[in-house]
Amino acid sequence: MVLLRVGEQFSVKLAASPSTGYAWHVLTSNESMRIRQGDPVFALNPNRPTSIGARGTETFTYRVVAGGETQLRFEYKRALESDKPPKRVAFDLLAN
Fold it and tell me: Are strands 56-64 and 87-95 parallel, antiparallel or unpaired?
């Protein structure tokens, strides 16, 4: 459980490799308690060469706008594929 306060900003950083066609997609149940601050930002890993399939980090930034409890879920998949995503992560959030 991640404890947050109303007005607080927080970020979720996930390993990604967008040149492979995969991207993180956000799934959640209580969108009224947080607002995404802009689009996700991708940064290449500075220790690896820039090539097709190069890995990096995708950062999602949010601001808590109301108290409550929710689960923030992400799936790593290709947009047009309906198969089970190869990666899923979830964070339980509690804000007051």
Answer: unpaired
Of 22, 13, 12, 78, residue with least CA distance to 54 = 22
Q: What is the number of alpha carbons within 13 Å of residue 57 lying toward its C-beta? A: 10
Q: pTM value?
A: 0.85
Buried b (16+ CB within 10 A) or exposed e, 45-71: eeeeeeeeeeebebebbbebeeeeebe
- Predicted pLDDT at 94: 94
The number of beta carbons lying within 10 Å of the beta carbon of residue 88 is: 12
